[in-house]
Write a structure and sequence with these properties.
alpha+beta; Arc Repressor Mutant, subunit A; Alpha-Beta Plaits; 3 domains; 8 helices; 9 strands
Amino acid sequence: MPISLDKAVIARIVKAGEKFEILVDPEKALELKRGKEIKMEDVLAAREIYSDVGKGLRAPQEKLNRLFGTNNAEQIAVKIIHEGELQLTTEQRRKMVEDRRKQIAGMISRQGVNPQSGAPHPVERILNAMEQAKVQIDGTKPTEEQIEGILEKIQRIIPIRFEKVQLAIKIPPAYSARSVSAVRAFGKLQKEEWLNDGSYAAQSEIRAGMQPEIFDKLNSLTKGEVEVKVLSKTRQ
């Protein structure tokens, strides 16, 4: 489905003092930036690389070849999204923060229980605790990278217990470099090492309820070639 120019935002990068811009769907561009595989036809509102979107000025082919090593618009767009910045409007940022807040509250409600009753906390109670604890949400940052810090704050307001698991993760050489930051963002990293063949191995402690999301993320980054083993489970 074509992306509406009214919805599109600018993604921008500056290389060697030169500015390059593209028009993108903000939500799809963020998903791509976080490592999810997205078709570029669902990301780009226009298959053009601009030096100034507002003035409609296209970037010269010579500069694209010199600074990006190609003049392929989709390949350059991927680099701009991964390495550059998304220019979101105030309303878009507000909506993303609110959506992320509800997503985090829902995840905590599903994965944790009230140790006094053994039942989950309702989402509304989680949201109220987040407000009382003055939790700050980053709408552009993945949920799993924020949730541990949020839990520390709201556990001072309401009692929550989680089951935790220790995972052993091994990523093949072809995908190790792109996957390291994702592994480090999950839970508490306990050990990591680069193996002789270029593979990346790590042990990490996470909340048990995060397993499906983590497995999906790692499978997406490695095209299903990641190896994950549960080493132990504990309740906290």
